[in-house]
DNA sequence: TCTCGTTTTAAACGTATGTTTGAAACAGTT
DNA sequence: AACTGTTTCAAACATACGTTTAAAACGAGA
């Protein structure tokens, strides 16, 4: 039980601190202090800081992707050849994501911030790791989206998917400060789940936009 | 001429390196080496690394915001009370932005990457600096958008503006790698200007989406 | 040509980082 | 109770960082 506790508290501390400050700005001393373990524990249990970063992602993404894969298969089977509906796909994705941070909805925000960092911060090793590990599930998801948007050219669909990804990662990343801003500006805060609800019609409408301006 | 050259090459090197690796991951030694100047030059001319970061943003944003302010005033005058059109506003913004990196269109991508970093990376001093310095222009822009979307609730508009910001920053940030991906996946690359063209209908349609899913 | 303020330079400073080490503490087995 | 493999611990290691310093080089005005 001792080992699991140490490993778990390191992962918890690292997840939170990385999401708050970024990877380079978070030292192993920050992490081990917050986790209440010895400094050397990270290198003992994970091998290096890079490996710890990957482990933080794996702990969230592996169950999430397994879950998503099951859901995608189920949808595919239920459809039985018919054309899937876009908002349904998006809601499936968002609900799987919300479920992945099962203990607290705040966890999804934390992880989105990490995902944003993975893109923006150097960390080439991370991008390679994510691609190798979770690329196939993403491709399966894309096949469904493609089936749901037959009228889009491959090029438009490619770019619009990334517009959607950007809107999602950016706003869910900053959900904490954005809801604080919303509360200050208009007296109405929101939690992550509500932001996701607002996000879906925006994304669905954007993806289906006419080719010209409108 | 000597001083201007040193300052300018430091800013050029810093802008590029920051955008590639982030702030914390880029050392003053990296910057001064790339710029071909002495290590101490940064602290001599800018005072500190933080001040250098702010200077990099100021060099891009100050002319851009002055230009944008002029354009906004011109639109306001031309309207003379009538309701402005959304796609027109977005195109005005994008064209002002493209003009800001006047020498090369790649510059806009670099700056968007920096803007993304400013949000994600710690750098509280940067957010405060940007807010103080460029907040008013953003508010003026928001007034126009509000006038162009009278049917939206303040809450929906708030969130959708940030969805738009996210889609823009994210995709223009990663425009280099994304166009490479597009080229690999579908044999068709794009430059920044073309991505912006694809972005506008997506954003306009998302902002005007019905409140429910659609 | 000499002078004085500005700019550049090489070297050092203090600090913080990721990692390694070797001994101590622990837990399970015989 | 003694042994064994695993985990923790305090301390040290080498390295890289941002910043400072004091002297040298420079450039324009008298």
From TrEMBL, chains A, B:
Annotated ranges, domain HTH tetR-type: 4-64
Key word DNA-binding present: yes
DNA-binding region: 27-46
Record key words, sorted: DNA-binding
InterPro entries for the chain: DNA-bd_HTH_TetR-type_CS (IPR023772), Homeodomain-like_sf (IPR009057), HTH-type_TetR-like_transc_reg (IPR050109), HTH_TetR (IPR001647), PsrA_TetR_C (IPR041586), Tet_transcr_reg_TetR-rel_C_sf (IPR036271)
Pfam hit, one: TetR_N
Descriptive protein name: TetR/AcrR family transcriptional regulator
Organism of origin: Thalassolituus hydrocarboniclasticus
């Amino acid at each position: 039980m001792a080992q699991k506790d140490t490993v778990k508290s390191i992962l918890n501390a690292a997840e939170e601190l990385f999401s708050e400050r970024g990877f380079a700005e978070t030292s192993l001393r920050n992490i081990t202090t917050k986790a209440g373990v010895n400094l050397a524990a990270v290198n003992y249990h994970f091998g290096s800081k890079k490996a710890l970063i990957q482990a933080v992602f794996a702990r969230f993404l592996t169950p999430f992707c397994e879950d998503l894969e099951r859901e995608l298969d189920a949808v595919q089977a239920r459809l039985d050849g018919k054309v899937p509906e876009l908002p349904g796909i998006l809601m499936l994705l968002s609900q799987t994501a919300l479920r992945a941070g099962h203990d607290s909805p705040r966890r999804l925000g934390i992880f989105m911030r990490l995902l944003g960092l993975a893109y923006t911060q150097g960390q080439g090793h991370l991008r390679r790791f994510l691609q190798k590990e979770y690329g196939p599930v993403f491709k399966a998801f894309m096949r469904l989206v493609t089936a749901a948007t037959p009228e889009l050219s491959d090029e438009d669909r490619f770019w619009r998917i990334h517009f959607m990804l950007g809107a999602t990662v950016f706003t869910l990343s900053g959900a904490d400060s954005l809801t604080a801003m919303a509360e200050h500006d208009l007296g109405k805060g929101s939690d992550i789940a509500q932001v996701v609800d607002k996000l879906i019609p925006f994304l669905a409408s954007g993806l289906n936009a006419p080719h010209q301006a409108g």
